[in-house]
Design goal:
The chain is an alpha+beta fold and about 150 residues long. It has one domain: TATA-Binding Protein (2-Layer Sandwich), CATH 3.30.310.70. A 5-stranded antiparallel sheet has the order 1-5-4-3-2. Helix 2 crosses helix 6 and helix 4 packs across helix 6. It is globular, with a radius of gyration of 18 Å.
């Protein structure tokens, strides 16, 4: 009984944190490649689909220049006005999350991951209405590009 009470207390205490973590809007997929190769593959897949690469940020490289250590981490900023403009027209605050971003990162165990924001999360976050087709297309494109990057 004592163990059940302790387990229940822990569940009540930690459940809100678990729910927030599970509902953070990130789609994360394990990669079979290094951070560099994962991001190279993702960028190539994005270009193939007509996305413009806005910037590529090497967070670990910047940390090293500042004399700090960071596991390999790269951010790609990319977009397509044909998809993003209708979304921002429907909800201007979506501009804080657009252009799109993908993050390739290495965890403490050396495993590489690829993360990006879920379009359904963007829809909920910004209260986006009336542009379900562009959001669905964005979701399909992101999933396809991620699959190519990590395979």
């Amino acid at each position: 009984m004592k163990n059940t009470v302790v387990a229940l207390a822990l569940l009540i205490f930690f459940a809100p944190a678990v729910a927030r973590a599970a509902d953070n809007g990130l789609v994360t997929t394990a990669s079979n490649h290094s951070v560099q190769v994962t991001m190279d593959r993702f960028a190539a897949a994005a270009k193939e689909r007509g996305f413009t690469i806005v910037a590529r940020v090497n967070h670990a490289g910047a940390a090293a220049k500042a004399g700090l250590k960071l596991r390999p981490t790269q951010l790609l900023i990319f977009g397509n006005p044909k998809g993003g403009t209708p979304i921002m027209a429907a909800a201007p605050t979506a501009g804080i999350d657009l252009p799109l971003k993908a993050l390739a990162w290495e965890d403490a165990g050396g495993k590489v991951w690829l993360s990006y924001n879920s379009p359904s999360w963007l829809k909920a976050r910004h209260g986006i209405e009336g542009v379900d087709k562009p959001l669905a297309g964005m979701g399909k494109a992101l999933a396809a590009m991620a699959a190519k990057a990590v395979e």
